[in-house]
Amino acid sequence: MYKQTLFGFQSPIVAGIIETFAFLLYTSFIEFAWGTEYGGFLYYIGITVVFILVSLYIFIGAITKYEYAVLDTELILRKYVRGQIMRIYSINLVRSNCIYCNKGLRFLTTSAKETKRLFVPGFEPFRKKCAIVFTDRDGVRRKLIFKPDKELDEEIYRIKTAKW
To answer: In degrees to the nearest 10, what's the CA dihedral of 91, 67, 7, 100?
Structure first.
């Protein structure tokens, strides 16, 4: 068994510092446009919407944690929100229709139109490093985008390419 854990922000202090920086940046954009020709209603609405989305993204990254584990021939994904398990996905890597793709070189994945994407909030730098497309228990085709460490990638690749 091999296990990998990904945190959005391991410390809430880091999320707080980033949120403070975002708020100061927001106020500086408002101050920049105040009383000028740029200071229209749409500008203020646009800046406010961007600030709210960034704040929401930081909040989700602060409370979410993902855990990946390879057990025999199965990839298990656990999503934790505030320390409690929210969802568990179990993906059989052998004799299944799941497709594993690392940097687009090894396997091809289906287009996003056919699948519901499972994003990893707070991990924007890790996106599109690796994807696995599978059908969950509800019969919904999903695409999971994540960044495995080297050992997890080798383990999944070994299982997917072995002759069973």
So the answer is: -30
Find out whether 57 and 120 touch, Cβ atoms under 8 Å.
no
- Cβ distance 157 to 99 under 8 Å? no
| Segments in 34-64 forming alpha helices (H) | 41-63
**Kind plus residue range of the DSSP H or E element containing 146:** strand 141-146
What is the longest distance spanned by two Cα atoms in the chain? 70
**pLDDT tens across 31-57, in order?**
988 888 877 889 999 999 999 999 988
**Type of residue at 164:** W
Separation between Cα atoms, residue 58 and residue 8, nearest integer Å: 8
How far, in Å, CA of 92 to CA of 76, rounded?
9
